[in-house]
Design goal:
Rossmann fold; 17% strand; alpha/beta; 11 helices; 2 domains; six-stranded parallel β-sheet; single chain
């Protein structure tokens, strides 16, 4: 009985998709996100705010309820332009119409850890419909050719829209002041921002053990220092389960860019937050205790091409934080910035908007 119902359901969906394809194509832009309910990622939000056109937003954390599938197909097949900022699983089910355009304003446009087909080489159709993809520098285009299996002509160094405001001194000042107004206990302290990314084992998400003694770290930090944690948005756990004097998890209270504006040092492992850190000219440090067993490969030469030192011994955490702020390799930082973030010049949003406006007029 269940198999029969599934067959009927799939047949109805095929009929529905065929019907949607015959509906008039609307001169509108659909912003489609699977990361959060009712909220676009920063790149998409910047473009949405700057675009003077008729717009629709569909933002639901994946997986979405099956009951929404007909509505999703209706949206995907009736908008002239579709903009997404992450994987869009529904592209496996829906072939867009020839007159439509699909813009992938990828949330991590640099060439850091491997992704897409370079990690999961099995046959898939999820990326093949992109008409344009953004990256952060000319040197990064070649990485996305293999990651998305697209011709290089569809990949452009427009820069990341969310980095535009990092070139605005007034925005930076307001952001810092707003942060310290909300967290006065951190004002006048040297803030070390720790942003680890997610982990996988055999392609599946697993909990990451940072191999850090936070009680010891709290005791080693002095009253003029603070360690602030910001977990990856797809991670549902924290490393600290009790209050500390000098350690704060602000994952749910602040976004990464705000924290970076208020911090003296960015500490990460394999996260693309280094793009924003580079644009801001921050000192960076890489703590990767699992470097020898980390599953994903890298596009750059890790760790030699990083804009900061790598260390793996958690017992040296606090001394390494202090050293990274005190001893910077500015030539190394500049080399990374030139190779990886040269298109993040404050005008990325303008470039993306121009492309979308051109498509709408075609």
């Amino acid at each position: 009985m269940k198999r029969s119902l599934k067959k009927i359901y799939r047949a109805l969906l095929r009929l529905w998709q065929a019907f949607c394809r015959r509906l008039p194509l609307r001169r509108r832009v659909l912003f489609f996100s699977i990361r959060a309910d009712g909220k676009l990622l920063e790149n998409a939000q910047c473009v949405y705010d700057a675009l003077d056109a008729k717009k629709t937003v569909f933002a639901h954390k994946y997986p979405t309820p099956p009951r929404l599938r007909p509505y999703i197909w209706l949206l995907l097949l009736t908008h002239k332009v579709v903009v997404t900022d992450d994987y869009l699983p529904f592209l496996r089910e829906v072939r867009l119409r020839p007159e439509q355009k699909l813009f992938q304003i990828w949330h991590a446009g640099g060439g850091f850890k491997k992704m897409g087909f370079d990690v999961f080489p099995a046959p898939d159709t999820i990326h093949e419909q992109y008409d344009d993809v953004i990256v952060t520098a000319e040197d990064c285009r070649k990485y996305f050719v293999t990651a998305f299996r697209l011709p290089i002509e569809k990949i452009h160094a427009y820069g990341l829209p969310r980095t535009d405001k990092l070139h605005d001194p007034e925005w930076l000042r307001r952001t810092r002041e707003g942060f310290f107004a909300r967290h006065p206990q951190l004002r006048d302290k040297t803030i070390y921002l720790y942003c680890p990314t997610f982990r996988e084992k055999n392609g599946k998400r697993v909990r990451f053990d940072p191999q850090l003694d936070f009680g010891r770290i709290d005791g080693e930090l002095d009253d003029g220092e603070a360690l602030v944690l910001h977990m990856h948005p797809t991670v549902d756990y924290t490393f600290v389960d009790k209050p500390y004097r000098h350690i704060f998890d602000l994952t749910r209270e602040e976004d990464t860019l705000t924290l970076m504006c208020a911090s003296a040092l960015l500490v990460t492992d394999y996260s693309s937050v280094i793009v924003e850190g580079s644009v801001l000219g921050m000192p960076m440090l890489f703590y990767s205790p699992d470097f020898d067993v980390y599953e994903r490969g890298f596009y750059l030469n890790y760790p030699d091409d990083l804009p900061g030192r790598l260390f793996t011994d958690g017992s040296r955490f606090v001394p390494e934080l202090r050293r990274a702020v005190r001893e910077r390799d500015f030539e190394r930082e500049a080399a990374y910035r030139k190779a990886q973030t040269s298109a993040c010049d404050g005008h990325a949003t303008e470039r993306v908007v121009r492309v979308i406006e051109k498509w709408l007029d075609e």
